[in-house]
Amino acid sequence: MSTNIQGKVVVITGASSGLGEKTARHLAKQGAIVVLGARRRDRLDAIAKSIVAEGGEASAVAVDVTKRAELDGLIKKASDTYGKIDVLVSNAGIMPIAPLARLKVDEWDRMIDINIKGVLYGIAAALPLMQKQKSGHFINIASVFGIKVFAPGGTVYCATKAAIRTISEGLRMEVHGDKIRTTIISPGAVDSELKESTSDQDASKMVKELYKTLAIPADSIARAIAFAIDQPTDVDINEIVVRPTAQDF
Q1: What pLDDT score does 198 carry?
Q2: Is 121 marked active-site?
């Protein structure tokens, strides 16, 4: 069990499945206190109950990251319950893939609301507390598609993930004197519900075939997140890119 993870209060959004769930379970086994946030309260409660049954400490808060007040409530509940927030993992995200010409404008709006504004609302909720503590760690889940553009189909998704990398780097530069760390995690194809969010039939078939061929388990990302948290406080792991070995883009 890691002494640098043990006892840390880690808030995770998008924690009802995939990367969020695996990260919660992995960190709890390392001794972290995990606070799970997502819309599906029944799933959250089941995961939290399972973690506790295995000897970990976990609680669940229903939250929609597109609503700033709900993210404020998530952070406040965690802080009120445990007295601090050590880490915020902003993991909630969607990836509907379709060429721009299909004009899936509602999906563009939804991606911007969840993938970008959800992260910003998390920062707005947790940053004042971390500055008051003079410690903290923001871990933002981006994507290899924030580094490279996948088109046709992924243009807007790529833009949202590039925005996360920009926001995270700007945050790092602004808070470095406050002993607050920032980490960008950029996964490649990872087995999660992300591939299920595409409504365009042709694009959905392509994405699912790609993931069937390449995807690595979600706990691969959980281990990367744990590595970043586990570092001594004077070490800030700013970005980790995790691809399947077979992925060439």
Answers
A1: 86
A2: no
